[in-house]
Amino acid sequence: MSENFELAAVRRGRVADLVASRGAMTLRELCDHFGVSIATMRRDLQALDEEGRVERTHGGAMRKASVNGDLPNDQRKSVGAEEKRRIGLAAISLLDGDEVVFLDAGTTAHAVAVEAIRKPKCTYVTTSLGIARKLQSHGLTDFYLVGGSYEPINDSFAGTLAIEALRALSFDVAFICCSAIDLKARSISVASEAYSQVQKEVLATSRTKFVIADSSKFKPSAFMRTATFSQISGVITNSEASKDDLDVLRKSKLELVLA
Questions:
Q1: What is the DSSP letter of 142?
Q2: Which residue intervals define the domain HTH deoR-type in the entry (predicted)?
Q3: N or C terminus: fewer CB in 10 A for the chain?
Q4: Do residues 245 and 215 lie in contact, with contact meaning Cβ atoms separated by under 8 Å?
Q5: Predicted local distance difference test score (pLDDT) of residue 68
Q6: H or E stretch including 228?
């Protein structure tokens, strides 16, 4: 028997309100909260995404972000957690084990840091407090935290001091996060002007530059463009990405790593 349309509409309104208040929720959390099946909740999220009330992700939903705003890291960690875990493992597996590696500020880079214990002889550099803490918790000591003006939205440092410090460094490999991978414009972008400048400095001094992003990031540009596809080496993303999206990346002659 089909569900009453009015009851479904009421529930969807409550789903949108809950996601907006919490920033992000997983599919399982939403199912448990509203007492509905996974199939029902997927239909709700699809409808809400089409209405522009939430942003559907792999494994859940997040508050609809404006073009110049991101959710805080602690709210984004639970979104696509399994995909990010696999991306983190794939990224660390690319390293030989003795490189100087830049880990960007972002939840996907945090997933790389979780796996850094697998390559303990690398030298890691980051602007992220959370990533520095994770490296420390692994017992790793060969890492550097670049300071500057604190950016609470992604728990990291940016600004003039950070940029001056980065200009004195060079990296074998950089793992770069982003808010959006625009397949039409063939570019990556972030929501913060300050952090866009940090990323540009890192890209300019890195030999190999991988963008690490789950497939929910394949969407129109965010506020500040960081780089075009010609300025990066490759993309590491989850294997659930659509064939059409992956074909665009392959045709752009980027190294594509699926996790």
A1: S
A2: 8-63
A3: N
A4: yes
A5: 46
A6: strand 224-228
Q: Which residues on adjacent β-strands are paired with residue 236?
A: 212, 257
> Hey, is 54 helix, strand or coil?
strand
Question: Which run of H or of E encompasses 189?
Answer: strand 187-190
**CA terminus-to-terminus distance, the chain:** 39
Given a contact cutoff of 8 angstroms between Cβ atoms, the answer to whether 223 and 189 are in contact is: yes
212-255 pLDDT tens trace: 999 888 887 777 899 999 999 999 999 988 899 999 999 999 99
Rounded to an integer, what distance in angstroms lies between the CA atom of residue 201 and that of residue 195? 10
Q: Are residues 171 and 60 in the same domain?
A: no
Closest CA to 210 of 236, 241, 188: 236
The strand pair at 60-63 and 54-57 is best described as antiparallel
Q: Would you list the DSSP string of 35-47?
A: T--HHHHHHHHHH
Query: Distance between CA 50 and CA 178 in Å, rounded?
Result: 23
- Which residues have a Cβ under 8 Å from the Cβ of 85 and sit 6 or more positions away? 111, 114
Domain holding 42, by residue range, is 5-64
Q: What is the pTM of this model?
A: 0.75
Phi first, then psi: what are they for 226, rounded to 5°?
-95, -40
In a domain, 97, yes or no: yes
For the chain, how many residues are written? 259
Query: How far apart (Å, rounded) are the C-alpha atoms in residues 177 and 165?
Result: 20
Q: Is residue 49 part of a domain?
A: yes
| H or E element, residue 222 | none
Residues 133 and 89 in one domain: yes
pLDDT top residue among 40 and 21: 40
